[in-house]
Amino acid sequence: MLQIGGVPDVPQLFPRWSNSVARLAFATLLLCVPAVVAGLMLHVRSDWFTGAGIAPVQPVPFSHAHHSGKLGIDCRYCHTGVESSPVAGIPPTRTCMTCHSQLWTEAEALAPVRESMASGQSLRWTRVTDLADYAYFDHAVHVHNGVGCASCHGAVQTMPLTMAPHAFHMGFCLDCHRDPGPNLRPPARITDMDWSPVDGAADTRALLAHYDIRSERLDDCSICHR
Amino acid sequence: MTDTNEGKRRGELWRGTTTPRAPLAPPTDRRTFLKLAGWSALAGGAAACTPRSPEELVPYVDMPEHVVPGRPTYYATTLLREGYGYGAIVETREGRPIKIDGNPGHPATLGASDAVLQAELMQLYDPDRSRTPLHDGTPRSLDALAADLATLRERLLKSGGRGLRVLTPPVTSPTQAARLGALLDSFPEARWHQWHALARDAAITGSRIAFGRAVDITTRMDRADVIVQLDGDFLAEGPAHLAHAADFSSRRRPGPGMLRLWVMESTPGLAGAAADHTLVVPQPRVVRLALALAAELGLAVPAAEGLSPRERRWVAACARDLAEHRGRALVLAGDPQPPAVHALAHWLNAALDAPGRTLEWRDPALARPEPVIESLTALAEDMHRGEVDALVVIDGDPAYDAPADLRFAEGLERVSTVIHHGLYVDATARRADWHVPLAHDLESWGDARAFDGSVSLQQPLVEPLHASLPRLALPEMLMGRWPRSDREVVAAHWEARLGGESAEPWKAALRAGIVAGTASSSVDVVPRPSAIRDALAETPGNADAPAPVLQFRADPHVSDGRYASNAWLQELPRPLTKLTWDNALLISPAMAERMGIGDEEVLRVSTGQATIEAPAWVLPGMPDEALTIWLGHGRAIRSGGEGDSLADGVGVDAYPLRTTGALFARTGIDVEPVGRRYALAATQHHHRMEGREPVRRMTLAEVLDGRDHAPQGDEHPSLYPEPVPAPFDVDAPQWGMAVDLNACTGCMACTAACQAENNIPVVGKRQVRAGREMHWIRVDRYYEGDADAPRTLFQPVPCQHCENAPCEYVCPTGATQHDSEGLNVMVYNRCIGTRDCSQNCPYKVRRFNFVEYNYGAQEAELLSALRNPDVTVRSRGVMEKCTYCIQRISRARRQAKIEDRPIADGDVVTACQQACPTGAIVFGDVSDPESAVSRAKNHPLDYALLAELNTRPRTTYRARVRNPHPDLEENDSSGGDKAHG
Q1: Helices B339-351 & B286-296, crossing angle to 10 degrees?
Q2: What is the ipTM of this complex?
Q3: How distant is the Cα of B471 from the closest Cα of chain A, in angstroms?
Q4: Given A49, A204, B180, B572, which residue has the most CB atoms within 10 angstroms?
């Protein structure tokens, strides 16, 4: 029935204290939204999310600390593509077996390697340094232009189990692409894991000139994305 | 075709995904909706919290020599088509072939390719290929097949092979021919037959008429000033068409001495579109015009009757042009024409002093040149008589493509053992006792001759993907010489000439993709006028043929049906019709008007014995009183993978109307509208330029008169900031492209190459109809002049890479940007899919992923192997477009940086440029005045598309120049309004 100029006679549904509950709920919500956003932003930067500093489980507990740090084997002995290909390459089983057919031939930890050689089935490693799929990185052009292995991969010669030293966000790449000087090394020091840059701007300028690097164009989208 | 086919999931490639047409769940009330929305937001957020799933690294156990993971490896090999070899260089990544291009050292490709060559890659990975041997339709092992064949061999040995027949396509392969010869030696009663629905019978019979023996023609079009084509399409058909295109276009650059092309054609083709003068007539009438031409040139031939004044004038001018260029003229007869026309062409060429100058007569490249229709007819007759005991069909589907009057499928039932060796479980396979999967050319060893007889070797690029056997296997099995690898068979055949597998000549031949010095020798023959005259007198066509004529032509991409389940080729717009995913009855505008029908109206065509129903497509340039239908559609293939075959329900099978006496044209047909429509998917609906002049035209006379600049459009005020806002860093190369519209033949090789290089998805017929095709470079086709005899213009349009790019101003997320090398780049991960950029693009070259085209396919795993790892695979909701092959630019830039040198001119070759058989596309650094692209752009005929918008495109065009004969230069550019629109 239509009532003109009056209020329909409806019984009150909510008690008076429900106003306070509603106010409190709105206030909490207002605080929660930025908290959740901030939390998520922190989360995607956390090591747990990026995998930085965490060594994944591998089929063989390969130690760079032993092979690179203690024995001093050059990076290129195993990562053969690094100077000629976009990917450095994971060594084929045969590379492992060049030494391990003579050394530690009975070691329990190396059983998967021997099995791979015998069966012809590849070892299946878990990727440690994982760049986003839409970014294209080329090892060869970096190592030919003064960027050392350690600049991105960290001090692997100290890692008993290999881990990414930091997150590979776009910011990490851009920092260097916008100002490559501090990360350049002389050509002979590219795979030298213990080398550290000498302080002094003159040296940096000389290296920039030596490699003919002009950073103005290095932050074009098309340098990494296609 | 029936109505029920219409609703089928035709060409729906992302099988298994929910398409946008799927009905939503039953209506939801508001409460439930809010609940669902809340939960899905929560679930989405939670899903985003998980760390990226770890990726696996799987190294080799033992790395092959020369392989560097991450770098491409290139191999030379040979792909077969109609038996002839096409030399290719195939790019592989970690053992996967990912791109095919022509071999610059091979005469049939000269480094270029066509759409089919590009799409052979898709053929290799085609999910519909058969995957396992079938015995009476039941999957069996290859061992079971070998055991069964051994039993068959025992049976045949007792009778000397009586009743054993082998059916192959025409064979040029020296090894295959020799092994089949050996098979016939061990089974003296056996017979070898050849069949291919598009084989060039008329050329073989024609040369037998003219010379008394089979002779091949090879041309030197680069030496010709005048070329006359009597029907057919020398730029699209036959084993030499890529060589023709290269030679021809080298003489079509505007300037003094530009070649003039005269074309008579019965169905619009690439040569007709390139011609200066095109005469459009139904196929049977070409004989008459050829006779008139011969008579004008003084040859004693039967008189031609009933020519129209226009035809008379055309033929007279053509004959005068030929006569004035004796020794520099060339006459070509097309495959659809009867043998007598081919013989007459030989006579005309001899009369014009062409031999030794513009053409050479050579020993045939085919191992056994014979009219295959006779070979197949003999086989079918024997089958019906019950004289065939065992039939081995290698790489063919005669139950589908044999002429209807042979009743081949019925004949198969009278053969006790039918063994089918093919790529697909097709009509023949389903009627066979055994179906054996055929290894693709990229999985096999072999060899083949090119059109000029040059031999090239075929080497596999990948281990067979399925349980298949190579082309050479079955004869070896029947000879009891299996298991024997096909490599051994080929190497043994060439041992005498190239030494064994370890010898240097063998390795050199493999590396180069050609065996040096194997071209066939030219022969010294003289045409015999009396024989030719007799043949002409017996050829019908001089009398008026009963109208209308039904003409059969190969589908420009799907061919005789061989590529019917090849998604790239089905979706590639056909050069002139721009149709995809279907064939149609092509009909002239005048005839359509008389019948009161339009596009997509279904017509019933009946011959008395057979009837088909197919949609009409009105095509300017079709002769009046003639209909053309493409063969190769409506092919019944059972997919080797899960689900339907892609070819299923695509188009209409026209083979039931084709008979041994009417292979290319059939008279005595009834045509009537059915009164229903069938939806066709075309990619271009405008036929005219609508006054905007995207293709600028001139005549050679105007160019030589000094009006040597492209006609310019009107000036418009511009709102763009001047000078150009993009940083023009002189230190960086500035990329640009120039397209010569005089060289472009409209063949679509560029589009196919771009699709292969840039991971461009196939979207299916329904999406094409919605205007959602994804090709990054399209080839526009325009008509001008009279709709019944129009001039055809082609224009390839990739992203123009505007310096004032309208797309960049409207992108809300900065996903499309300029880089310092002048490229208009797309950053896929920034794109949120507003499509504003596409809306603001005056060239309409941007493509949007409306649905998930790439990852939803059931066969995604198999198809992912053909993707280019250097190019991002785009996902739903992302805009994309031509990048000028940014991955190739990047590779060149990085390589130059590693070698510490500047990028040289020619270091970057785009995929379209590499494929183009005529060199119409030039790419490079426009800031270097000496680069090829700068020189092309400095040509006075260079112009920019829609230059009046001041977008400053980096892609420019060279105006199209015609070279009309002065006698015919009447005002035939009038009547543009009549063009079909």
Answers
A1: 20
A2: 0.85
A3: 30
A4: B572
